Amino acid sequence: MSDIRILHETDLRARIALDTGAIDVVERAFARLAEGGVEMPPVMSMHMPDVNGEVDVKTAYVPGLPGFAVKISPGFFDNPAKGLPSTSGLMVVLSTETGRVRAVLLDNGYLTDVRTAAAGGVAARHLARGDAARAAIFGAGLQARMQLRALCLVRPIAEAVIWARDPAKSGRLAAELSGNDLAVRATADPAEAAGFADVIVTTTPATEPILMADWLRPGQHVTAMGSDQAGKGELDPACLARADLYVADRLAQTRKMGELRAALAAGTIADDGSLPELGEVITGRRPGRTAPEQITIADLTGTGVQDTAIATRALAAFDQE
Amino acid sequence: MSDIRILHETDLRARIALDTGAIDVVERAFARLAEGGVEMPPVMSMHMPDVNGEVDVKTAYVPGLPGFAVKISPGFFDNPAKGLPSTSGLMVVLSTETGRVRAVLLDNGYLTDVRTAAAGGVAARHLARGDAARAAIFGAGLQARMQLRALCLVRPIAEAVIWARDPAKSGRLAAELSGNDLAVRATADPAEAAGFADVIVTTTPATEPILMADWLRPGQHVTAMGSDQAGKGELDPACLARADLYVADRLAQTRKMGELRAALAAGTIADDGSLPELGEVITGRRPGRTAPEQITIADLTGTGVQDTAIATRALAAFDQE
Fold first, then answer.
1. Which fold has domain B5-111+305-319?
2. Which value does ipTM take for this structure?
């Protein structure tokens, strides 16, 4: 029994950060997904309406890695009233040689936060203009701050604007994030925020569009990462028609629970086999941004291969001890 | 972090046994499934052909219980050559109030063994004749011995016969299990084993039928519990036509990976909405055995609700300390 590592949130926070290394391993995971051989079953989802809770389970097997993660992500939406975060959970890492449990990462969702933000960094690295210096973040939660940090790791972001439904929150976050090399302000006008930015990241659990197609302008990149359920969606479906390029983290998921779902329902985009996935852009199998004036959209729903990637990185950090 | 219980296999083996209490909680879980309110998503399954491995994830939410289990069950079929069992895994128990992790049960599949055998006990309790005294067990593995033990807990079993493909194994198992109140012998003739018994339990990973319809006689009950994948099956499809009553643990599963799958394909049974589930028989919503001369079949594929039931029992045993 002693060969199973049990790692707690504090241990993991001390070793694993949202840094270029995290972005690199998530980028490589998406590339592997495009290269083939990866197994990634559909997300297992269970809703518990009478306790206002849900749990998602994700996994992915990447040949060649020593382990694969099975991640259990609960969301219990009455928790904030009890003084607890809505989300928590853990990752179990199993050996790809024997299936035996190698580690239990009791991260309360921290590694998910990191790998989710890292995917935003990957998307911006491959789709945003190289000179993108202005960011707009929609939302003022944890991912708002982490997605902005990820952008700063891959692009020369100098200014950022934050819009959130609650102006008190966006104001506080802007004050907190503004620093030496980065000027951050809040705005009450989402159209102004959108128009200002070279890169827009939407990070909300919105169920109605918060970013309108009319607000977009040539040269922008948009990453929508808030939607991970069939009932959510942040982008006006016309955004996908307006964009020159739409890229999914995983089409099988974005069709069901990403921005693609509402756009397909609205008929603003055709799912004719031409839509690329992020890994295909990373590996050069499919083109990414091909001109500075293009508008690009990345639709991120969160994939098991990111979990296996970040869990592998976490375990490697401890194994090196 | 200290409020998460980490329990190891040795701890769990010391507290949780295949006993009447385990059969009772699994019976109650099936009843809850019939009563409604239970959430049980389809099994998540991932195959890793290049390492000859697979992993299944099961879960179920039962309103009123303090927690729900998410079970991760790997099967790595090259393990025996490495001196390791093929199956292992763990259960994670999450709070139904907050979704927070309450416990990690590092049982290496032990609790699955118990809840699987307990379901066999539940099936026999509700479908075998009350005077059933003779058992036939097909297979000589761990479930062969555990299913026989479960039968002895619910019926006055005095004699048992074991048939297995490998006669050396069935001989050894018969010698091991034969004791004071139970006479156990091995046989090389599966038809003889079947004809001898009041209750037959098939416990093998067979992919071709091992129990023929011609061998059945009035008054018998058959529990088939070996099939848990679409490629497996132990019963001649004609058995289901021969039987007076077919009962599934969960029709949504037995249609895909139980004995029902092959019978539907062979057209020996109609899936016309009349097939009952075990929980419906337990709660009296649907009839079970209604006459001593009937032939009954229970098709057990293993359900998440059993996992939540046994994990809840395990945690309660430790919480009482």
1. ornithine cyclodeaminase, domain 1 (3.30.1780)
2. 0.93
Predicted TM-score (pTM) of the model is: 0.94
A63 contacts B50? CB cut-off 8 A: yes
| Average model confidence (pLDDT) across chain A | 96
Res B34: pLDDT:
97
CA distance B203 to B139: 5
- Beta strand B296-299 with B245-248 is parallel
More confident residue, A244 or B3: A244
Alpha-helical (H) ranges within chain B are 9-15, 20-35, 110-127, 142-154, 167-177, 190-196, 238-242, 251-257, 259-266, 278-282, 304-319
Reported CATH class of domain B128-303: alpha beta
How crowded is residue A321: how many other Cβ atoms within 10 Å of its Cβ?
A: 5
Chain B hits for A303, CB-CB cut-off 8 Å, are: none
Residues carrying CATH 3.30.1780.10, chain B: 5-111+305-319
Rounded CA separation A106/B236 (Å): 46
- Reported as a single tens digit per residue, the pLDDT across B8-67 is 999 999 999 999 999 999 999 999 999 999 999 999 999 999 999 999 999 999 999 999
Instruction: State whether residue B195 is helix, strand or coil.
Output: helix
- Chain B residues near residue A4 by CB distance under 8 angstroms: 106
The C-alpha atoms of residue A258 and residue A264 are separated, in whole angstroms, by: 10
